[in-house]
Amino acid sequence: MFTQIAEGDVKLFVPKETKISKELPVFYNPVMRRNRDLSILLLKALQPTPVNWVVGLPLAGTGVRAMRFLKELPSQMIERIDVNDHSKEAVDLIKENLKLNNLLGDERINISCLDANTFLQQSTGYHYIDIDPFGSPNPFLDRSIVRLSRGGILAISATDTAALCGAYPKVCRRKYWAENRKGVRQHERGLRILIRKVQLIAAQYDKALIPVFSYWHEHYFRVFFRCTKSREEVDKVLRQQGEMDGFGPLWLGSLFDPSLVVKMHDLAAQGETKKFLALLVEESAVNVARYFDLHEYAQRKGRNPPSTKAVIAALKTKGYQAARTHLCVTGLISDAPFDVIEKVIEGL
To answer: All domains of the chain, ordered by start, with CATH?
Structure first.
């Protein structure tokens, strides 16, 4: 039923099944390794450096994230990790995986088998909470935000991208209180709709959640929020919500803390994650919402798509900021108005 693999600095037993679904006896998704890699890099890159943080993992699955935190983060960062899963089979596997990595009995680890919201409700609070569910994070947002400390980090994943990107507009409206449709910029709008939903839940508790690192990759969205307890900061957050392309409401502010992204890139080992972060370094330096899709422009004009590199260079020559975006392989972001971008393209 289980097979042994390695991820990062840890070994672990995972289900043999290759089809990823919520029917797995214990949930493990190898595609989410980048998710976990980036979580570790972000914690290492935070300023001020976390010291004696208490971490809450309500949906621990195989326990891989907890073990990697303990093995790969500086020891002074983590005072305690509370590892929870509602499945007894998952908790048994977590114990086996801890034993495999010589971590069973580590005084920094507490293991529980509770409903995720019960686990959060019974806690005294956390500096870092990671919500990485199969599907929508909605059921876990309220208790996670209540238990998040000032200055803490809330990490949210969402794999229900079809709803967020507008493939099912009624579902998007019900779950995320916003309008979206499939088409140009659907992934950017989906990511920003998710951010706004989390921020609205936090606003009820006078907590301002500012995204410091946000991205879309393959089948999921991922956002890391920094928490500030302040009514004034909440009001500032709400003022940065509005519409894009006639859809939304959604978050119109920055998706990144640029200095954090640079440090994460510098810390990353050579490989695909570092390449991904190099792209985000470029993107985060251009603090604008709504990218320009060169392919969509070419289709509209009945011409071949221009070179992304050439358009970016031409915009920079004119004094504008411009960069590629991870949200669209044929897109770019720039502080130049769209009509200026089109004129630049026509002049190439």
So the answer is: 2-264 (3.40.50.150), 287-346 (3.30.56.70)
